[in-house]
Design brief:
454 residues; alpha/beta; Rossmann fold; six-stranded parallel beta sheet; 14 helices
Length: 454
């Protein structure tokens, strides 16, 4: 049996796949520290509900991830670091091209960062592409978010794509109704110059199809936001260490900004404590480094707490968290609250982690939440509505059976969000894109065939 808090476990079977990929017999080298044999063979049974397939022959791949990267304080940087870690565990040689946002003058990157692009220097994008071509990577994985690349709507990225010779997989972390023609053209060009596109939800895919002109032959894959498996100890011990034993702990976690709607969570506490007198609201994380007047925003939140007389009910933990600390707070809390105000948000690391660790989530119905919390995996509340937030949270606190049911549904779904599973899906995609690119280079492509298990 797979225990969700045990790290280094690899789920290899009995997991539903979004799409059944044709593939030959695969020999996959997996590092021994995973606790599995160092050589694992997969064969197709033809059953799309139980086959977990990787595509290709012996794994020998060197890829590059282009993105912001740790120690940059940014959700995309954290995601890219986890993606690199997960693929490395599968034997992929991963290098990084980091897009420096210029917030900190001296960014000390880890050793896997081989090239740094200065966000607003157009020539850096061209030089980065030439570096990729020189090293001869098998593929590049781009983590796309409008705000992290230079030029209007990130248009400098197109210079990289025009110059690079290796296949490209682009993950779109944000999909929006384009506010102007430039945003539309830039996004369509990024997709056109990529060999494959991934999005994190089916709703994101629907938005792409609705608002953008997409080549009908372009492959778009739905691969959810990964969740790292970290064993952080038992919940009761964590609650004692965090000083929340005996409390009903509500948690909002991550980089703070006005679009997180934290003030509505604070206001909801006035109604929550009328029915749940041991309730506390933990707001964990520092203000987003790109937010101007960070101190003003922080003071505004604290001033609201004082105005409502909630000093002993709202706890601020004002620091950037390691992933281990992040998971500790998730595991220790009773409810994860996401009172976000941006309806078009199409991904959320906090929501993915809440599901991955089987927590009850109360969220506004932004795009990603509507899909991820469907079928009894969480509760939705109204935008900018403290009373709606309070009603949802009180219903969980007062109904233990409802809470258990939602937690079970969340965990059952959340296991498929673990990086041990998600990284294999990326490996499938990488191998197929690389293989197809090689065949195209010699002018011939032979479609792979099934290998049946007798």
């Amino acid at each position: 049996m797979f225990y969700p808090h045990h790290s280094e476990d690899l789920v290899l079977c009995a997991l539903n796949t979004e799409k059944f990929i044709k593939a030959p017999l695969l020999t996959l080298r997996v590092k021994k520290r995973l606790g599995l044999s160092s050589l694992i063979k997969f064969k197709l049974t033809g059953n799309r509900d139980t086959d977990l397939i990787a595509y290709g022959g012996d794994l020998n791949m060197h890829i590059c991830i282009l993105s912001t990267y740790t120690p940059e304080k940014c959700g995309i940087a954290e995601y890219s670091s986890e993606l690199a870690r997960a693929l490395t565990k599968l034997g992929v040689d991963v290098s990084i091209i980091a897009v420096n946002q210029g917030i900190e003058r001296r960014m000390r990157y880890p050793e896997e960062v081989e090239f740094v692009i200065r966000r607003n220097k157009l020539n850096d994008y061209v030089e980065a592409a030439r570096y990729v071509n020189t090293v001869n990577f098998d593929a590049v994985m781009i983590q796309h978010e409008y705000g992290i690349f230079g030029g209007k709507w990130g248009s400098y990225l197109i210079e990289f794509l025009n110059e690079v010779d290796v296949p490209v997989i682009t993950t779109l972390h944000t999909v929006i109704n384009p506010p102007d023609d430039i945003a539309k053209r830039v996004t369509e060009q990024v997709m056109k110059l990529s060999n494959a596109i991934t999005v994190m939800s089916r709703n994101s895919l629907n938005l792409l199809m609705k608002y953008y002109n997409i080549d009908g032959r372009k492959r778009i894959h739905v691969i959810p936001h990964g969740v790292r498996s970290i064993y952080v100890g038992d919940r009761d011990s964590l609650r004692r260490k965090l000083g929340i034993s005996g409390k009903f702990a509500i948690l909002t976690i991550g980089l703070l900004s006005p679009d997180k709607g934290i003030e509505y969570g604070i206001r909801a506490m006035k109604d929550i404590i009328k029915y749940v007198d041991n309730a506390i609201y933990m707001v964990v994380g520092e203000v987003h480094p790109k937010l101007r007047m960070k101190r003003v925003y922080r003071k505004k939140l604290r001033k609201l707490v004082s105005k409502l007389g909630l000093e002993d009910k709202v706890i601020f933990v004002d620091r950037f968290l390691t992933k281990e600390d992040y998971v500790k707070y998730i595991v220790a809390c009773d409810v994860v609250l996401l009172p976000y105000v941006n309806e078009i948000q199409v991904s959320s690391g906090a929501l993915s982690y809440a599901l991955g660790y089987g927590k009850v989530t109360v969220s506004t119905p932004f795009i990603y939440a509507r899909e991820m919390l469907a079928n009894g995996r969480g509760l939705l509340c109204k935008f900018k509505d403290p009373k709606s937030i309070a009603n949802a949270i009180v219903s969980i606190a007062m109904n233990p059976e409802l809470r258990k049911k939602i937690e079970a549904n969340a965990l059952r779904y959340g296991l498929k969000l673990r990086w041990e599973y998600v990284s294999l899906r990326f490996l499938n995609l990488l191998a197929s894109v690389v293989e197809e690119h090689k065949y195209k280079e010699v002018g011939e492509y032979v479609a792979p065939t099934y290998t049946k298990v007798s």
